[in-house]
């Protein structure tokens, strides 16, 4: 059955774009946390969640934060940036990547992305770096950056600090190494749309042991409270100018349950991605669809199913036509170098020409992907997209001739 809403036809049984997947022990752990009376940060569930994450991340210390945005701000604080310092990052990312460094007063230099992985790779990084560059933020779009090892080596050779914005890429690895552990600092998101989620949450992965002590201080309002809690000092004192970047333990309880269920979550997500690809890949050339490419030697996180629509097909029309077929597809990032918030002097240099980013920005489409999506629903999504593209693509070709 179809119902009319705001002038558009919607299928009653709409397949949502994303939906929280309830892990079996979620309610139990939240109850336990409430009963313990320790709801604030750095309680028993924070330690449990951080230990599970560390085991996935080469044993690197993991500091839970209220969001990935906060994790990026903590990473930026650790970089000690001034107005003469530049931070290179892809323009095709979420505003939080840029905000974290802009808030610290650094200048932003936006780089283009690769047309197949949709992430900034080594050539785009090399083209953007200047003598003023101090920090490089690699954003793993959909948890995929082909050249991350080469980018790490490039940064090491030039004394640049590499921060990995790994909001999408928990459980991904490249050449066997977990994403988020290539740079001295990595960040994670546990926002409601992510593979494991506690509603809002994040983490900083500290792979450089030299940064850990300071990261702990800055995260705890600039105090050495972490040492007090470990019994290393008899009272804690104010050591630096910091902020409050702790995740409430009651949310860490939810996160712990999610992490314990991660194998199931990941298996379901991978099965769905595989089914989508089985249906879409054979028709991609005919329909003019370009699926995000996963390089060899890469274990992707199955976080999102991203693709580029054919040129000449208006994305807004595709989204409406998909809704009419009961599928909530979505667009994604608007290029940040064109956003009003990042005008000079915040954005360094002349308006860069980032042709791949501008092209991708208006062609990117994502299909529903969440663990409780059935394979049949994914099939419906893929079939709907093929139908829509056949119709709209034929229209576009007709207009062009
Ligand atoms: C690449 C990227 N970085 C950072 C964030 C911010 O994450 P959070 O919502 O946990 O603050 C997002 C949000 O999805 C993102 O896509």
The CATH superfamily title of the largest domain: Type I PLP-dependent aspartate aminotransferase-like (Major domain)
* Unreliable residue runs: 1-10
Q: What's the N-to-C terminus distance?
A: 37 Å
CATH class of the largest domain: Alpha Beta
Order of helices and strands: EEHHEHEHEHEHEEEEEHHHHEEEHHEH
Name the helicity range. Answer: 25-40%
Largest sheet: 7 strands, mixed
- Report the CATH architecture of the largest domain: 3-Layer(aba) Sandwich
Total count of domains:
2
Ligands, ions, cofactors: pyridoxal-5'-phosphate
Mean pLDDT: 94
Helix/strand class: alpha/beta
The third-level CATH topology of the largest domain is Aspartate Aminotransferase, domain 2
The amount of beta strand, in percent, is 5-15%
Instruction: Report the radius of gyration as a whole number of Å.
Output: 22 Å
Question: What is the helix tally?
Answer: 13
Annotation, overall tally of beta strands: 15
Strand order of the largest sheet: 3-11-10-7-6-4-5
- 3D shape: globular
Outline the structure in words:
The chain has 401 residues and is of the alpha/beta class. The chain folds into two domains: 2-19 and 263-400, Aspartate Aminotransferase, domain 1 (Alpha-Beta Complex), CATH 3.90.1150; 26-260, 3-Layer(aba) Sandwich (Aspartate Aminotransferase, domain 2). Helices cover 39% and strands 15% of the residues. The strands form four sheets. A seven-stranded mixed β-sheet has the order 3-11-10-7-6-4-5, sandwiched between helices. Helix 6 links the parallel strand 6 (133-139) and strand 7 (161-165). Helix 1 (26-36) runs antiparallel to helix 9 and helix 3 (68-78) crosses helix 7 (212-219). The chain binds pyridoxal-5'-phosphate (PLP).
């Amino acid at each position: 059955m179809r119902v009319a809403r705001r002038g558009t036809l919607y299928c009653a049984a709409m397949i949502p774009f994303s939906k929280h997947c309830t892990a079996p022990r979620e309610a139990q752990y939240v109850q336990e946390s409430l009963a313990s009376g320790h709801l604030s940060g750095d309680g028993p569930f924070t330690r449990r969640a951080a230990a599970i994450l560390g085991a996935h991340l080469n044993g690197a210390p993991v500091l839970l934060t209220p969001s990935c945005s906060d994790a990026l701000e903590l990473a930026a604080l650790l970089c000690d940036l001034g107005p003469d310092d530049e931070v290179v990052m892809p323009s095709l990312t979420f505003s939080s990547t840029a905000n974290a460094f802009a808030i610290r007063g650094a200048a932003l230099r936006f780089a283009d992305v690769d047309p197949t992985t949709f992430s900034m790779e080594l050539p785009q990084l090399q083209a953007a770096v200047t003598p003023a560059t101090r920090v490089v933020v690699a954003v793993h779009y959909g948890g995929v950056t082909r050249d991350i090892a080469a980018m790490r080596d490039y940064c090491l050779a030039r004394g640049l600090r590499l921060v990995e914005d790994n909001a999408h890429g928990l459980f991904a690895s490249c050449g066997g190494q977990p994403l988020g552990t290539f740079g001295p600092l990595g960040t994670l998101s546990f926002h409601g749309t992510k593979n494991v989620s506690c509603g809002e949450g994040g983490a900083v992965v500290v792979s450089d042991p030299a940064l850990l002590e300071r990261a702990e201080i800055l995260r705890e309002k600039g105090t050495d409270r972490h040492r007090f809690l470990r019994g290393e000092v008899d009272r804690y004192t104010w050591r630096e100018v910091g902020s409050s970047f702790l995740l409430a333990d009651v949310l860490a309880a939810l996160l712990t349950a999610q992490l314990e269920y991660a194998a199931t979550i990941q298996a379901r997500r991978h099965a769905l991605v595989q089914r989508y690809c089985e249906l879409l890949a054979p028709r991609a050339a005919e329909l003019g669809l370009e699926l995000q490419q996963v390089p060899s030697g890469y274990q992707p996180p199955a976080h999102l199913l991203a693709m580029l629509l054919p040129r000449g097909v208006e994305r807004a029309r595709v989204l409406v036509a998909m809704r009419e077929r009961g599928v909530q597809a979505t667009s994604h990032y608007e290029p940040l170098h064109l956003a009003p918030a990042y005008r000079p002097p915040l954005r360094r240099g002349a308006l860069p020409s980032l042709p791949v980013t501008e092209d991708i920005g208006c062609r990117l489409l994502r299909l529903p992907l969440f663990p409780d999506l059935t394979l049949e629903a994914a099939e419906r999504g893929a079939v709907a997209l093929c139908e829509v593209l056949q119709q709209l693509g034929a229209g576009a070709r007709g207009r062009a001739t």
